Amino acid sequence: MADAMERGGESPGAAVKSKWARLVPLAVILVAAMGGAYALGDYLSFETLRDNREMLIAYRDQHYWAAVAVFMTFYVIIAGFSLPGATIATLTGGFLFGTFPGVLFNVGAATMGATVVFLAAKFGLGERLAAKMDSSEGRIKALKDGIDENQWTMLFLIRLVPVVPFFVANLIPALVGVRLWRYVVSTFIGIIPGGLVYTSVGAGLGEVFARGETPNLGIIFEPHVLLPMLGLAALSLLPAVIKKIRGRETV
User: How many CB atoms lie within 10 A of CB 80?
Assistant: First the structure.
């Protein structure tokens, strides 16, 4: 029996252990997200930024690149472990570093953090799930094939439409077998519009603090902001629409 097990590969027990080991990174992220939502919700807030703004500005003025490194590290941790406060972090990036280069620091850190979630999900579930969808039949296989044919469209769409939660947009590509480089490129480019909006809001926080007000975080849903973003989302759908029309013409 030992010889048979050697010929057949790893033992059933080892296979089960390997399966559970693959889920550890994703489980850590989920536990950290729940724990962070409970423990850090009151700290990663606009009030915390307001109360500590002078200290943050002083540190930035004295140690600019160290401030950039520390800020981006915290942002990667927030995004990578899906902790509350991503919006506040984006505002902080604009407040400390201006709209530019603040938007680059925000988008870069958010992309790195999102990639952590993507890799954890892909390692734990994505490869197996994508393989099962490839080997299946009927509607599931058709769904997988449709996604594969229009991966760029799908990736940009879930980033550009502001109603898709960031964590969900990180998971979906991993579960359908998207390649890492496509995910990174589409994430970085796709979150620029929304990141630019909130970074610019953060850049104007000095005046907001002076008036004793809070920033309008719903600005992304105002028509003059939302409509151009929806226009970009529609533009990202154009290749899939053209491919569909051409497919009908050749039938």
Answer: 22
Segments making up each domain of the chain, as ranges: 2-250
Which tokens belong to 225?
């902001």
Contact status, residue 59 vs residue 139, Cβ threshold 8 Å: no
Angle in degrees, CA 246, 249, 232, rounded to 5 = 30
How far is Cα 191 from Cα 232, in angstroms, rounded to an integer? 12
Matching residue, tokens 């406060």? 85
What is the value of pTM for the model shown? Answer: 0.78
d(CA 82, CA 117): 8
Q: What is the DSSP letter of 219?
A: G
What rounded mean pLDDT belongs to the chain?
78
Q: What angle do CA 101, 95, 82 make, to 5 degrees?
A: 85
- Say if residues 179 and 122 touch (Cβ distance below 8 Å): no
- pLDDT tens profile 6-38: 444 555 555 555 666 666 666 666 776 666 666
> Model confidence over 73-106: pLDDT tens digits?
999 999 988 888 888 999 999 999 999 999 999 9
Pull the structure tokens for residue 12: 């059933």
Q: Say how many C-beta atoms besides its own lie within 10 A of residue 49's C-beta.
A: 21
Distance CA 219, CA 225 (A): 7
CA-CA-CA-CA dihedral for 200, 205, 211, 215, to nearest 10:
70
